[in-house]
Amino acid sequence: MSRLVILAALAGSACSEEPPPPLACDGVIRTVPGEPGLHVPLGSSIEWSTNPPATGMHYPIWARWDNHYTALERGYWVHNAEHGGVILLYRCPEGCPDVVDALLGVVRAFPADDACQAPVQSRLLVVADPLLPPEVQVAAVGWNAIYTASCFDPYVETFARARYRKAPEDLCADGVDRGGTFIDPAAAAN
Description:
Elements lengths: L1 H15 L11 E4 L35 E3 L4 H9 L3 E5 L6 H13 L14 E5 L9 E5 L2 E5 L5 H9 L17 E2 L8
Parallel strand pairs: 2-4, 3-4
Antiparallel strand pairs: 1-6, 2-7, 3-5, 5-6
């Protein structure tokens, strides 16, 4: 009889727990198994186990932090993720200035990283990625973690804060100039 009471109590407690709220925009968070962060020559073709990639092989140099890139090969920003950065991605074949502005706003609102030295404010990038799956308009990548969504959801900032500095190399040295545009934290988003 006592076994039945325990089972009933367990069943009652399981039913009283609320499931986590669903993410807007069909948002999905995935943790992916880590792969060796091996360096490959610049321009090498790299096949990753996920789309977008969040671990594995990458180029030996990384892109300059606090920048918006309309074109940046994945091999660079995967290295940024290995250094504890978060990459905010978007795919908008027809253009989506409101989504880009929202992602830039996330970077501008992010707290300054005390491990970084000027000119670096934080280890964040905003990158146009035409290789994202067609159903994904917005994604965020931290080492071994991916967030994807069909539209912009402010949750992307929560993901960025949770995954920031969670990587095998906690390094805030600035990367190389790959033609991005500086995201000025003092600029007001329209």
